[in-house]
Design brief:
This protein is an alpha+beta fold. Helices cover about 50% and strands about 5% of the residues. Strand 1, helix 1 and strand 2 form a beta-alpha-beta unit.
Amino acid sequence: MKYELIYWPGLQGRGEFVRLALEEGGADYTDTALVPESDGGGIPAVMSVLSDATTDRPPLAPPVLRAGKRLIAQSSNILLFLGGRLGLAPRDEAGKLWTHQLQLTIADFANEIHDSHHPIASSLYYEQQKGAAKRRSKHLLDERIPKFLGYFEQVTVRNTQRGNWLVGAKLSYVDLSMAQVMAGLIFAFPKYMRRSLRDYPCLQSIHDRVFARRRIKAYARSRRRIPFNDYGIFRHYPELDQ
């Protein structure tokens, strides 16, 4: 099946969690973020889906995956759909639910990371909430990052199947997402992460092994991988990197 990922151009955002799964799974897909507006991509492609009054089950916001006649929104929900189809999730129900649970926890973490630089409102510029962002980022670095990374580190340690992954003995889509979170944190908070990485050897290993995989390595070096920038979830503001 050919898929279409519908997402905003110019940023990785939550669409990147889906892209990594599509790339690792060798899926045939189009990313509207990379398609010129003149060819049906870009912002008009997103707005066309969001404003379509004929859709019985409309999405609120991207990312949206078009799979045949289906429109599936929310990155965690998309990955639940793709996991089995791309060989990136366990086959048993308990394993599927556990993987989905971890992905939902990553989504919670991503929201908190985003809110460190936009703590008041997403509609305001960063410069309009810098004071609040500095306070929120301190809380993120002091309490929330250790809480989330500590949790995922223990999940990996307790994975009795000894695959050195988060779920079972094989890489799953949640490992891809965790590697993306680690890469994003290293970009956003390089000073903090240099001090902290030694506390999370399992997660560091997941990051390194994911980005060394043949398909992911090729993707990361290609023009399909939108670079980290100051428009997405992970933003580097030196004054917040304490």
